[in-house]
């Protein structure tokens, strides 16, 4: 999927609000879903979090974090954190939209912004937070047929998504956001997934 195809499908469908309960104690945070075009195909930029972090250590995630008092809004949070974590300058990001706010068990309510990026310099991981920066072809993670779901009753979810890619396993909030993006781009495939437990 190239940039033009993505934009056509992203803007084609009206975003349906999710009926997801929100707890008042959740703190605001934001992430950027950075989409990078390479060789005519979009790739999503992901990070592997440092094993030393207190929350979500070692997990695969998007660049982002909690809102600071001096951030003008949550978009400013996503852009600032992306600059700090992977060295992506805000001027190299074109925001095309946002997904639903996503609550996580570490008591944050995360707002995901979708951005097309044209980095003018190589990515640089922030060593205390980011163990690795890597890309995955967007088309590979948007195939609902390849999404696994584990059903449970915990927090405010009834299911958790897992998206395997090569030797990696994308799961939790990151997989949930990619699943929402996939359902928005390909609403005709919203019911497809592979059960992990029956």
Average pLDDT level: 88
CATH topology of the domain at 1-136: Nucleoside Triphosphate Pyrophosphohydrolase
List the helices and strands in order.
Answer: HEEEEHEEEEHEEEHE
Number of strands: 12
Q: What is the molecular shape?
A: globular
Protein name: 8-oxo-dGTP pyrophosphatase MutT (NUDIX family)
Cofactor: Mg(2+); Mn(2+)
Keywords: Hydrolase, Magnesium, Manganese, Metal-binding
GO molecular function: coenzyme A diphosphatase activity; metal ion binding
Please outline what is shown here.
This is 8-oxo-dGTP pyrophosphatase MutT (NUDIX family). With 198 residues, the chain is an alpha+beta fold. Helix content is 21%, strand content 38%.
Please describe what this structure looks like.
GO terms for molecular function: coenzyme A diphosphatase activity; metal ion binding. The protein is of the alpha+beta class. Helix content is 21%, strand content 38%. The protein has a domain at 1-136: Nucleoside Triphosphate Pyrophosphohydrolase, CATH 3.90.79.10. Strands 1, 2, 3, 4, 5, 6, 7 and 8 form an 8-stranded mixed sheet that branches. A 4-stranded mixed sheet has the order 11-10-9-12. The longest helix has 14 residues, at 172-185. The protein is globular, with a radius of gyration of 16 Å.
């Amino acid at each position: 999927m190239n940039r033009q195809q993505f934009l056509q499908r992203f803007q084609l469908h009206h975003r349906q609000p999710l009926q997801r309960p929100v707890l008042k104690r959740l703190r605001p945070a934001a992430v950027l879903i950075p989409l990078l075009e390479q060789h005519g195909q979009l790739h999503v930029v992901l990070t592997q979090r440092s094993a030393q972090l207190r929350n979500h250590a070692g997990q695969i995630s998007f660049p982002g974090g909690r809102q600071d008092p001096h951030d003008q809004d949550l978009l400013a949070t996503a852009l600032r954190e992306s600059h700090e974590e992977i060295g992506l300058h805000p001027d190299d990001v074109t925001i095309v939209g946002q997904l639903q706010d996503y609550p996580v068990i570490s008591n944050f309510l995360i707002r995901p912004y979708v951005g097309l990026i044209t980095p003018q310099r190589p990515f640089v991981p922030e060593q205390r937070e980011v163990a690795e920066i890597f890309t995955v072809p967007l088309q590979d993670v948007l195939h609902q047929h390849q999404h696994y779901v584990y059903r449970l009753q915990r927090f405010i979810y009834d299911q958790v998504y897992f998206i395997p890619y090569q030797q990696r396993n994308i799961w939790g909030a990151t997989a949930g956001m990619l699943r929402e993006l996939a359902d928005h781009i390909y609403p005709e495939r919203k019911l497809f997934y592979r059960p992990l437990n029956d």
